[in-house]
Amino acid sequence: MPKIYIVDVTNRDGVQTSRLGLAKLEKTMINLYLNEMGIFRSEFGFPYTHHEKNYINANLELAEIGVLQPIRLSGWCPMRAEEITDAFTTTKLKHVNLSISTSRQMTQGKFSGRIVRVPEENTSLPNLLDNMGKMVELAKTLGAETVGVNAEDASRTEDEYLVRFALRAKEAGATTFRYCDTLGYDDPLTIYRRIRMLAEEVKIPIELHCHNDLGLAVACSVAGAQGAVDGGVDAYINTAINCMGERAGNADLVSCILALKKASGLESKYDLDEKVDLKMAWKIAKYASYAFGVPIPINQVGVGANAFAHESGIHADGALKDRRNYELYDFEELGRGETELIETGREITVGEYSGIKGFRNVYGKMEIEFHNDKEASDILELVRYANVHTQKPLTDDELRFIARYPELARQIMTMTPLR
């Protein structure tokens, strides 16, 4: 039976959230946590973008040495030869998704008559189908092991054209087809029908990329995955931690996993990638909240402060007698329930102005020792820079990463402006 896999796009689409973003060190920590969570793939950035290069290459090196394994790191590129060539000649990228708009609205509204959707429209102009095929072939020639083809605004694209577009992608060598509900326009019943039709007609694994403009991103992602599996192909749900993303955000990572594992029509009926470990949910949600500077809503699925809170007499009484009365799943499954200690007395922290004694005190509490004063001083300088880089106090895991991989940390945090 085909499986459902999770592709997290926090480090690509999530960081496009207006007014917000992540430092490169924070993006790296997200990748490390996603790997620990058993997520199949992280769409970790824009490999053709100059300021991403050091971060991209350092994370690919972390993959090579086995730190970011078995997670797959994939890049995103527009369907343009210059960007695709740059991505593969300046990094060791192996996996990529190429994106172009397919709806009449976007092709007419964005391309202003420079390109048509099919050759029959105007033989004197380039067309999307041929251009897309050439770009897929180019990426594979440059060394891409997998190439996903994205149909931006697929939800407002006619069925007939989507089938033709996906078939052309498959013929060119694409390994997956990404159905993008770019405006959050779909509903669960419609997306199920369309994805199942595409799966049966094209027979290519399908990615579901849903936005939350109507509050249906999780529902549509899950329904679309059902359609793909029922149509005989693997499904890849695109998620973002804490629903981060443009406008109203993307499909929430934890919510999608919980739906696939616990919903009445899904539990034990569809195979979710067995590597997924929900016990990382609490940790990854809290870190993303801290890194983005966006509090977790009190009623957020699974990880909100009220997700397991009961106040009314009937509910409290029922939950105390048997948690199953009012809790669909156990909080321990999400990594919750551990006592969290908060310093209330003297506390030494590290930042851009820290000295060596305070620095050693902080690392000593984490049982990290340095071989000599020079090593300690070198790591301290990196920690100072990291504080400037993130513009917030470093977490223990960030401090551990810098101490363990100082050269890669330095590379990740180094950006040289274009001349």
Helix content: 40-55%
Strand content: 5-15%
Tally of discrete structural domains: 2
Q: Say how many strands there are.
A: 9
Oligomerization category of the chains in this entry = single chain
Mean pLDDT: 94
- Rounded Rg: 23 Å
The CATH superfamily of the largest domain appears as Aldolase class I
Largest sheet: 8 strands, parallel, barrel
- Classified by CATH, the class of the largest domain is Alpha Beta
Q: Which overall shape is indicated by the principal axes computed on the Cα atoms? A: globular
Query: Segments where pLDDT lies below 50 for 5+ residues?
Result: none
Read across the widest sheet, the strand sequence of neighbours is 1-2-3-4-5-6-7-8
Q: Give the ordered list of helices and strands.
A: EHEHEHEHHEHEHEHEHEHHHHHH
User: In the CATH hierarchy, what is the architecture of the largest domain at level 2?
Assistant: Alpha-Beta Barrel
Helical segment tally? Answer: 15
The separation of the N and C termini measures: 53 Å
* CATH T-level fold name of the largest domain: TIM Barrel
Structure, explained:
The protein is of the alpha/beta class and 419 residues long. It has 2 domains: 3-292, TIM Barrel (Alpha-Beta Barrel), CATH 3.20.20; 356-406. The chain is 42% helix and 12% strand. It is built from 15 helices and 9 strands. The protein has an 8-stranded parallel barrel, surrounded by 8 helices. Strand 1, helix 1 (24-36) and strand 2 (41-45) form a beta-alpha-beta unit. Helix 6 (159-172) packs across helix 7 (188-202), helix 7 (188-202) packs parallel to helix 8 and helix 8 packs across helix 9. It is globular and about 75 Å long. The mean pLDDT is 94.
